[in-house]
Every structure is written in structure tokens, then in C-alpha cells.
Design a protein that fits this description.
Elements lengths: L1 H13 L2 H4 L16 H5 L2 E5 L4 E5 L4 E6 L5 E9 L2 E6 L2 E10 L2 E6 L4 E6 L2
Antiparallel strand pairs: 1-2, 1-8, 2-3, 3-4, 4-5, 5-6, 6-7, 7-8
Length: 121
């Protein structure tokens, strides 16, 4: 299930609508309340459990996805409240419940699918 979530996120971020049947994400508002612990903790590169893809969050609200062997894509993100992270493109938005424990980032979509990433050092 996690691989499907990662593929969905990568296809969304990468605009691979035809390839993976998902919409692309691109434009969202920059971080709100940048001082919160979770918002600061998410900053940096994270690797998928499969080890082949990297997702990197930046302080300015930019998120970059670097799939292994694929084209790097960029989008923006925002925390809309507490642990809720919104990523959207062209009016299509996705909201994830975000949890960070140590070096593990867990993103759970509203459909219940979970993506787990490990912080790169």
C-alpha cells in the first residue's frame, strides 16, 4: 500500500497523469506559522522505504521530489493546522496527516494510505 501512495505522490508531483493516472501537484501557499516544531522538523531530505526516491522539504514551502531515474519535480506545500499538510496543483489538493518520530516521517492520506520516509543525513 505504501508503494502505491509513493507512486501516487510522485505521479501527482511529477505530473505523470497519463503514466500513473493521477493529477499533478504544484502550487500551494508557503508555510504558515514557520516556527512550529513539526514545520521545522520536516525540513530536509527524506528517502522512501524502497530507497529509490527522495522527497525534500524546504523552509520556503517548496517540496522537491527526486525519483530514481526520473525527472525532479517541484511543488509547494503548507501546514493548514497542527499535523495537516496540504499539497495541491491546479485546484486538485491533497491533505496528509503528518507525524515525525525520530528520523521517520509518516504521511497518511485521507484515503488511509500511508507513506513512510526516512530522514537522510
Amino acid at each position: 500500500m505504501e508503494n502505491r501512495r509513493l507512486i501516487g505522490i510522485l505521479s501527482i508531483v511529477g505530473g505523470a497523469v497519463g503514466l500513473l493516472g493521477c493529477a499533478a501537484i504544484a502550487v500551494a501557499v508557503a508555510l504558515s506559522a514557520p516556527g512550529s516544531r513539526l514545520q521545522e522538523s520536516i525540513i530536509g531530505p527524506w528517502r522512501s522505504e524502497t530507497g529509490s526516491d527522495v522527497v525534500e522539504f524546504y523552509r520556503d514551502g517548496m517540496v522537491e521530489v527526486r525519483p530514481d531515474g526520473g525527472e525532479t519535480t517541484r511543488s509547494t506545500y503548507e501546514f493548514i493546522d497542527g499535523n495537516s499538510l496540504r499539497i495541491e496543483s491546479g485546484g486538485v489538493g491533497f491533505i496528509y496527516d503528518v507525524q515525525i518520530s525520530g528520523d521517520t516521517l509518516t504521511m497518511t492520506g485521507d484515503d488511509g494510505e500511508t507513506l513512510t520516509l526516512t530522514r537522510l543525513k
